[in-house]
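Researcher: Next entry in the queue.
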Amino acid sequence: MSAVLPTPPRSVGPATSLLSIKAWSGVFIALVAVLVVAPALNLAVPQDSALHLSDYAIGLAGKIMCYAICALAMDLIWGYTGILSLGHGVFFALGGYAMGMYLMRQIGRDGNYQSDLPDFMVFLDWKTLPWHWAASDSFAATLLLVVLVPGLLAFVFGFFAFRSRIKGVYFSIITQAMTYAAMLLFFRNETGFGGNNGFTDFKRILGHPIATPSMRMTLFVLSGVALIGFFLLSRWLVGSKFGRVLQAIRDAESRVMFTGYDPLRYKLCIWVISAVMCGIAGALYVPQVGIINPGEMSPAASIEIAIWAAVGGRGTLVGPIVGAFFVNGAKSWFTQAFPEFWLYFLGALFIAVTLFLPQGIVGLARRFKRGSKDEVKA
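Model: Structure for this entry, 378 residues:
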């Protein structure tokens, strides 16, 4: 007998075109903003002009776009598959550490100790590089590690967790324990990852100075293009048969099993994809921020990723991107104007969204849009 999916909810419709004409227009505008408008306002417009886009704004926007990729990855597993992860910060950090190792090797003899070894290794009286640094001087190998390390960890962890049918709050707790254990491991000096201080003082990437305006803009553009590309990939995934099975698993996993589908393969696949997305985001984040340390693996960092998705509106793809920009933009302002109130604001925001805006900012906007249309019809 051929397998038939259970009757999907209204949100799970038949396969449609990738994007509507209106949505494609939005993607085109975003591309123009990233590829043309931002570079022109930052590099071509004089600094004393009111239209000039400062280096600080470019750096902040680039960092938030990396966060938005993580929020998008969270939406794929939480919003569309019903799996709440509180450990995605570890995948983000692993991608960042892989890129950080390459950047540390690019320093060469320009460090404080003028040694071929990174400064922290000289300080700890290490004589040679540890084995896991063997390929860190190759940019191609680094790009491979950015994808393989988070993906492999996600595959191994997800295989055993999903095969054991761990779900709900138990799965969330286990993922949080995973990222906490990884954070403690990376805090140890003998692991060769810089201990508490991590990696910093980067100077070059691909032989080019990393602190120049042109390189800063290049990293900004790469982050923007990656975010748009991952959005289109995510839209294609959730609109395909694969995505409809994921949503059916979210709504009624037992019914999906009874009709002949294996939820393990689907959940494991989207889990690995989301982990790789976070790893790539971390690799783009590190050269822009200039530091990576075990703090990026803290449980609080992973919880924030879930907050971005919830605030923006999970199950919408656009919502988590909006949530990442809204929350981190507010964080940037609050930590300067009222630093002592930032955590209170974040907690209150999450509680308010949970109680009054279960569909997030995007859901609220859609509700207002429907209301205005009803008024026009009346």
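Model: The CA atoms of residues 222 and 303 lie 26 Å apart.
Researcher: Noted, moving on.
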